[in-house]
Amino acid sequence: MDHMGIHYNVWIMLLSYVLSVTASYSALNLICQVPSSTARTRRLWLLAGACVLGSGIWAMHFVGILAVRLPFDVRYSAGKVIMSMLVGIVFCYLGLSGALAQRMTFLRCAASGLLLGAGISIMHYVGMSSMKMEAEIHYYLPSQSISVMIAFIASFMSIMLIGRFKDSPGFNRWKLYSALLLGMAVSGMHYTSMQSSHFAYDSWLGSNPSLLQTDVILLMGVSLVTLFMFGISGGAVFLDRHMLERMAYHDPLTGLPNRHGLERYFRNWFLTGRPGAVFFVDLDRFKSINDTLGHDIGDMLLQEVASRLLQSVSPKGNVFRLGGDEFLIAEPDFTPEEAAEEASRILQEVKKSYRIEGNDLYVTASVGISMAPEHGTDRSSLMKAADTALYTSKDSGKNKFSMFDQEMNRHQLRRMSLEKDLRKALAQSEFMVVYQPKWDSLMNVTVGLEALLRWRHPEHGIISPAEFIPIAEETGLIVPITYWMLHEVCSQNMLWHTEEIASVAVSINMSARMFESENLYEVVEEALARSGLAPQYLELEITESIAMNNMEETVAQLSKLRNLGVRVSLDDFGTGFSSLGNLDEIPVNTLKIDQVFIRKSKMHSKKAIISNIIAIASNLNMEVVAEGVETPEQIELLQSLGCRVMQGYYYGRPMPVHELGQWFTENAAAV
């Protein structure tokens, strides 16, 4: 048995190192796509990187075998050859996945380097065991330990560098350094192990005919694997540029770029020191279409809106869908005048009728505009400014556009501050209830009170309900506030009864949110039971929009309350969205004429409307109350038309409890 040294072809050795570095760089380039990808595509990028790196390590190993000059034939076990490649891919996947954690620690880097080094080493020895030849390989353990340590240390150092470039899909020098270290780990481990291995030649050892022939077949296998490796890299790049990029950066419903596409657009193209405009577009009343006609119709409507927005923008403009019914338009090199002109065009296009599945649909939009660089020089600032302007458009009646200014910013900051303070106002007892009398102008007595909410802010004083009630509605805080108010009003009214100061019904305004909770009956019943107040002394005021929204459910809840004995009044009648054909179906005791008609009662048209409302109430056996009465002329007109119960500053302003008691005494008005 002869012991032989090993001789190498230097050029093939150099080729093997270049192959391992190229495979490493390609794999690292692929896994750099992981941090910016969606959850669905991250594993695909990671698997592609592991396949490229694992097959690159495998190819380098067998190219390294080809660099060895041996005096005998070598055959290979096909099963072990394939197994060695699979081992390399699996360990590369585990090592690279650990290296891409958001928060990298020394221990995590060490674990990832250990897995990668183990993959390189195990692949090497499985590959060596696949060799069938007329010789036996003897490994010298200390030298082999050094080769394994080279794989571990170089892999660890390479993993340590990943944090410097994992968010950079393009060329990065740290990525190149990491690839060079990985190439060193692979080739260093291989050649150190081979150099310390001894081949003991035995001329009588036979060959197994079921094994693969060497050199030509091995070279073909390595070539195919190399092509496979570069095929994955090229295919992944193609997939990224076309399919996966579209999945990650485009909205599947409308085909428009999504939030990820928006971020990339702003980062790469929009903010380059040039002026531009950002439009926030939000559809008005889109939720009602979804709720009434279904989400399929809603999705088709969104597709039509997206198409119209694309037609409305300039050739340089870009339209993005942010989610739901929110769109964003970016227009580079735009002036405020051009932005205003385009916003008007958008509003006109969006509000045209839509014919979808046999339905004629009408929808409007609200638009907020911010300008670069006046309102910001980064994406976040411009979007925030445009969003603030959008709120202004919504608050001022919808189907409008608004250009951002600093006054809007102050308004938005105040709104955010009030929303934050509103969340703790109830716990800190900052709310109070004031009461405004309802006066029978013929009998000259008080026949009721309306309870109104006030907020005593510790810094800003009394906050107008017109300012904080919409915030409470939007955030849902109106529900616990109304619970508190019900208990407060019922207890106070019971106290007036006990002290024989007044014996009248007190009305409380109800929010649509209270009907959404579907436990209004239980809440009212509990408030009455705790206070001991008879149900007929509590009245709930609802608006027309509440009555018409989900009418069947609303009527069912109101009917239960009416059966309990609680009174119901329809507030602001004539100003909301309602159908006279449904009015008789709503369980209502009282119609309240809105003050907008009373203020303009000298106009013949308003007088006619008031007269008709009173006639409707009379024919439906409902009581009628006129709001906003301030002059004797208004009183005289209302009396002549048949309205006797009135409410307004002429008879009494909203008063806190301690003033109301004195007012009762002075007016001798208790019934």
TrEMBL record:
One of its GO terms (cellular component) is membrane. Residues 8-200 form the MHYT domain. Keywords: Membrane, Transmembrane, Transmembrane helix. Gene3D superfamilies: 3.30.70.270, EAL domain (3.20.20.450). Residues 415-668 form the EAL domain. SMART domains: EAL, GGDEF. InterPro entries: Biofilm_reg_signaling (IPR052155), EAL_dom (IPR001633), EAL_sf (IPR035919), GGDEF_dom (IPR000160), MHYT_dom (IPR005330), Nucleotide_cyclase (IPR029787), Rev_trsase/Diguanyl_cyclase (IPR043128). PANTHER family: BIOFILM ARCHITECTURE MAINTENANCE PROTEIN MBAA, DIGUANYLATE CYCLASE DGCP. This is Diguanylate cyclase/phosphodiesterase with MHYT sensor. It comes from Paenibacillus sabinae T27.
